[in-house]
Amino acid sequence: MKTSTSNRGRNCGAALLLALGMLTILSVLGTAYVLSLQLDTEAAGLRLMKARAAHASEAGVQYTLGELLRAADPASVLGDRRYDIGVYGPVRTTPLTVVMTTRLNNVKAFAQVVVDQVSASTYPSDAEGAAIVAKIRPDEGRLFRIKSEGVVGRTVGGRDYGRTARSTVALVLLRSDGPQFVYWNSGPEPAAAPKAQ
One digit per residue, pLDDT tens: the chain, 197 residues? Predict the structure, then answer.
């Protein structure tokens, strides 16, 4: 049986259209996959920045506690302060070599801290940890409220590229036998304390 030239031409045209259709579908799938990877990478980077900001915030509380313990008079530590914090992480030095403990020059972090001495009689009833403060007797020790905001930002060419912030509020009781954290709240913004009844 002989095939006519017009049938052969139609078959070639159908195969060409089928091949072009498959290439189009594969191109769309490849593009979607690359975009998905980009979104996942950006989301992971944002989670990393949030974690670094939370750590910077908590480091501000710990630095302040150290100052309170070292000070001859802890009341001298009251007020605002800022701590610059080094950020370390992995850096690829060659395509096959990664240095794990290098300070990152393109990431800046600091903690902005406010320290107040508080007592049950002066502490606002709607402030965070108010229920705990109300139970602390004056003879138990000196109570300090430390509010720390950790800020982490990326820099590119000396310009800020973006910032992420997290807050930590802590109440520390300086007792004769050592410090004790009686309240700790970390997050984007500290949760509001329940209203006193």
Answer: 555 555 665 666 788 888 999 999 999 999 999 999 999 988 888 898 899 999 999 999 999 999 999 998 988 999 999 999 988 888 878 878 877 788 888 889 999 999 999 988 888 888 888 888 888 888 888 999 999 999 999 888 878 888 899 999 999 999 888 899 999 988 765 444 433 33
Buried b (16+ CB within 10 A) or exposed e, 97-131: eeeeeeebeebbbbbbbbbeebeeeebeeeebbbe
Q: What are the respective helix, strand and coil percentages of the chain, to the nearest 5?
A: 40, 40, 20
Coil, strand or helix at 71? coil
Strand partners for 103: 88
Instruction: Retrieve residue 125's tokens.
Output: 């009833």
pTM of the model: 0.75
Q: Cα torsion at 194, 120, 117, 83 (round to 10°)? A: -20
Strands 159-175 and 107-118: unpaired
